Amino acid sequence: MESFFFRYRNLLVLLALLLAQIIGLAVQVRRTDSGRNVLDPPDGAGVRLIRFWADGLLTPPEQLVHGSKLGLLSLWQNYLDLRHTREQNLDLQKTIDRMRLEQASLLEDARQGERLQALNDFQQKYIYKTLAAQAIGSSGSDQSRVFYIDKGANYGLTPDMAVITADGIVGKVREVFPRSAQVLAINDQTSGAGVILETTRTRGILRGSAAGRPQIVGILADQRIQPGEKVLTAGGDQIFPRGLPVGVVEKVVPDPERDSFINVIVKPAAHIDRLDEVLVITSTEPRFPADQLQDMATSEQLKGADAAAIKEQRKASDIMAERLPGLSDPNAPAPAPNPASGAAPASGPPAQSGQTPLPPTPAPKLLPAMHPDRFTPGAADSSAQKNEIPPTANQEEKPAPNPASKPVTPKRNQ
Amino acid sequence: MAVLGASHSRDLGIRHYPLLVYVMTPLVALVLQAWLPRLLMGYVWFDLPLIVTIYFALVRRDPVQGTLMGMGLGLFEDALTHHPIGINGVAKTVAGFLAGSMGIRIDVENQTIRVILTFLLSILSSAIYIFVYRILLGLDLQWNWFSDLMKAVVNSLIAAALFPLLDRVQIRD
Question: A265 in contact with B at a CB cutoff of 8 Å?
Answer without folding.
Answer: no
